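This section describes the prediction task in plain terms. A model, or a person checking by hand, is given the sequence of a single protein chain and must write out its three-dimensional structure as a string of tokens. No templates, partner chains or ligands are provided. The sample shown here is typical of the held-out split.
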Amino acid sequence: QLYLVESGGGLVQAGESLRLSCKAVGRSLSGYRMAWYRQNPGKDREFVAGLWWSPERTFVADSVKGRFTISGDSNKSTLYLQMNNLKIEDTAKYYCTAGDTHDYWGQGTTVTVSA
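The expected answer:
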């Protein structure tokens, strides 16, 4: 079984940065296509970024392109989301997913961006 645990969320002001982490428990992440999603109360869940391994490929949503970077460390079974120049509209609960059809989800970590 694969379990995902997100961390790194918090309360920041617009323009500041955060790095989210997603740690795998039970299995290595190297066998899964990974992604970050986010959901703000009252809004639909939104794709943020994705990562494929061997060779590594990354994809980011247009809404965060140029500000967010997804990366991973297979040796640590950890996925990262570097979030720079945060905006108020980035406020959401961020989820790490694994699998082509998003078979595994973490519990999420909350990011709140204030003016």
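For orientation: The mean pLDDT is 95.
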